């Protein structure tokens, strides 16, 4: 995964700077620490929002394995006071995947909401298949 250079990285909001560090390292323990207890994840392929730190950690850890390859990068990022939109691009099995991560955080810089949107349809279908396989390999869903 590539992100902005060191000087640009330092100017990122703390939650997003931490997100980039965790994503590059695929640091699941760091991810869990970054998430608020009541964090919510919205997926392009799951109908209902997934609520709670354990579920959000599970989905984002699976996404690290599916999306976060040598081609993954964030070409554009936009920031508000407690939110950001990160445009990402990658390639999986020869298919270009474009998407955005919409991230919100609280006053403690813990992520409270993470929504992913992906295009084109061929990419959504592929990501759906790969995420299903990865989540099944991770074992039973936490209660």
UniProtKB/TrEMBL annotation:
InterPro entries: NTF2-like_dom_sf (IPR032710), SnoaL-like (IPR037401). Pfam families: SnoaL_2 (PF12680). Residues 16-112 form the SnoaL-like domain. This is SnoaL-like domain-containing protein.
């Amino acid at each position: 995964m590539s992100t902005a250079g060191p000087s640009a990285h330092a100017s990122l909001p703390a939650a997003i700077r931490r997100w980039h560090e965790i994503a590059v390292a695929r640091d699941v323990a760091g991810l869990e620490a970054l998430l608020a207890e009541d964090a919510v994840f919205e997926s392009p392929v799951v109908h209902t929002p997934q609520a709670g730190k354990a579920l959000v950690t599970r989905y984002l850890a699976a996404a690290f394995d599916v999306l976060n390859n040598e081609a993954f990068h964030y070409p554009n990022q936009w920031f508000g006071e407690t939110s950001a939109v990160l445009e990402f691009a990658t390639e999986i099995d020869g298919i270009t995947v474009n998407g955005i991560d919409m991230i919100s955080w609280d006053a403690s810089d813990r992520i409270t909401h993470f929504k992913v949107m992906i295009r084109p349809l061929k990419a959504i279908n592929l990501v759906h298949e790969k995420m299903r396989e990865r989540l099944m390999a991770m074992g039973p869903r936490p209660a």
